[in-house]
């Protein structure tokens, strides 16, 4: 069994990895100050971004929930990896060969790493089988839906042979154990042992947002297949259907760029949309669209304003209407505007593209309708609006929909829309909407206490930037320390060492200062994040905020100059304090004594040092 990864390799992999690239695969990041980026926190639900990433320092911090760390801690939290697995994952990403303390090569036996590897190998096997003679039925299935070999290759579509041990045998030959294949959901357990889970089906690989295969979706092809029409990978350590979105790996870049996502119902619908130019289409995997999916999408979209769009496509049948109503209940979690797009004659995107071409798919999305209008229409569709009783009944079921609108400008507009559709007096509709709002007990959501925020986050025993005393001395210490943490690698080493070597007056800031003072090389990548990890509690969170906060400057050069000036001012403050003490002490000793002479010499040195520092400004 291999030993620990050599520390030099751990540091080298981290130095070669841009933390913004890794986090940017999960969270839409945008510039937020000098050397800083910001997005919605992936660790708690929030309406406005408080998650800061500082690529130069290789560090992230959330001002909402307090989570912070380096690229390894991010992967460990997001992907539930061990430390070694996180290092190995990044090393594999950049093609770096790790070395271990016992001299062994990089092992490939860790649990999650093996699951990813098994799924990747299975995806390759299924893709290869699509060109086999047996797979004619799968190729015909795809062709009948307008997907040629190029489309199949783009989405990685494959075929699972009808036998009981196709992928089992192929992956055994690659060195995978049966228990690993079972843990990956690729085989099932029977009375006679394990056998292939997917047999005689067209197979779509399901990837996470980083592009790693984590599972599969498979559609029945043969008439004698008594299994479900669609069969997915079961829940595994890497595949959780509640937060998996098919196609997100292909769509994430355009979703982030356009702040728009199109939610469709199946794998072929995703393929049809992408091939038609709707490259922001995604789908759930064998489960209803829910809160976890919304959290994933909001982070990828950068959903912190009402400018974005989330467009749902639903079949017009009863199941589709039910799905729409369920989605509407969760859609309030988006800041973006939500819409519904339906194809003509109830055609889904795949059939619409097949029958009417790519332009029809694009037109379907373009002619979307606000989701609230769609839901109102579904609610009142079963009432006879020609009768008084029907209109009153329709109002009673539709009023709660309007009452749930929290936007103070949208709600009165939809009161008027509902009144027109029902042919009723606007004031009567407004009163019923108000009554429905009171009875529901809804109240506007705020972010005063973000979900997942640690208890006692504002406790005075755990100081934060917001709770620091508003004095000139504390402000100078705060900003100087922030500058050194963020730009110390570009500052004059001597002035930084002198400033950081001096005690600070605020205990929390002094605890952070001590950790920084313990760093030997400020030019080493990741030194600041390591220093924060060495800050003693309860002040580590304050250190994380100092490293992640926006330093007040227009650009890097200004920031370096400002941080250097603040460091000089700290040294000047210490010199002035020492001079003040010496001037008091000289009054208590004889002028011609050894003590008196030493004090006068030191006073002259202080004055000369102050003059030199003033000349350097």
UniProtKB/TrEMBL annotation:
Taxonomy, superkingdom: Bacteria
InterPro entries in the cross-refs: DNA_primase_core_N_sf, DNA_primase_DnaB-bd, DNA_primase_DnaG, DNA_primase_Znf_CHC2, DnaG_bac, DNAG_N, DnaG_primase, TOPRIM_DnaG_bac
Co-factor requirement: Zn(2+)
Chloroplast among keywords: no
Signal peptide: none
Cofactor note: Binds 1 zinc ion per monomer.
Assembly behavior: Monomer. Interacts with DnaB.
Protein name per Swiss-Prot or TrEMBL: DNA primase
Gene source species: Microbacterium aurantiacum
